[in-house]
């Protein structure tokens, strides 16, 4: 395939950015989107130009680093991560716009790379357990109802990619935060911090400058791991419960 790429280029966090146009040829439909960008960068390097900076790590849909807005959609036209998006989703002659996440809490570092350390600080605020768990216990050593185990596992699938923030018209981080809260709050190991966890993580989320949630649902639609929208309502219930309990003390 021969493609026209319109890529966001920004030298650093303080510089003004703009879309730059590139032509790439000989792109196989079996390539991943990141492999296509590798091909572009190889051509740029051979020309003595600065390659396009973009985040990536495992390239197996697990780490969540491959944060790109492709033709206006977080991670592109398929419900998957950018590294698992293949060029068969596009056609010969297509023009493809490639941009970084757009959110006040995710400032651009360079080109397509953004600073997502706000997520790290939300996790640090309460995404942990203090109960001594030791080594991996024997199966069924800690009785957890199947419904709770399934609920926790569903939310544990969140990879922290930030697609929910990028897709949200308000730039909210409610789906990410709710996934991390619900994952631990439903398990017995997370019970000691159940109230403080949700209060601290939501407070940190607000401090980071994310927008407010209006339940438009774009976050759940864009999530490559299928975290459901009901996750947000579950966290809201946890927050109300914790607020009421704190008010009685």
Care to describe what's here?
36% of the residues lie in helices and 11% in strands. It has a five-stranded mixed beta sheet with strand order 2-1-5-3-4. A two-stranded antiparallel sheet has the order 6-7. The model has no long low-confidence stretch (mean pLDDT 95). A hairpin with a 2-residue loop joins strand 3 (69-70) and strand 4 (73-74). It contains eight helices and seven strands, in the order ββαβββββααααααα. Helix 2 runs parallel beside helix 5 (174-185) and helix 6 packs across helix 8 (230-247). The chain has helices at residues 33-46, 117-126, 146-156, 163-167, 174-185, 194-207, 218-222, 230-247, and strands at residues 3-9, 18-24, 69-70, 73-74, 95-99, 108-110, 113-114. The longest helix is centred in the last third of the chain and has 18 residues, at 230-247.
Task: Show the helix and strand layout.
Blueprint lengths: L2 E7 L8 E7 L8 H14 L22 E2 L2 E2 L20 E5 L8 E3 L2 E2 L2 H10 L19 H11 L6 H5 L6 H12 L8 H14 L10 H5 L7 H18 L2
Parallel strand pairs: 1-5
Antiparallel strand pairs: 1-2, 3-4, 3-5, 6-7
Helix pairs in contact: 2-5, 2-6, 3-5, 5-6, 5-8, 6-8
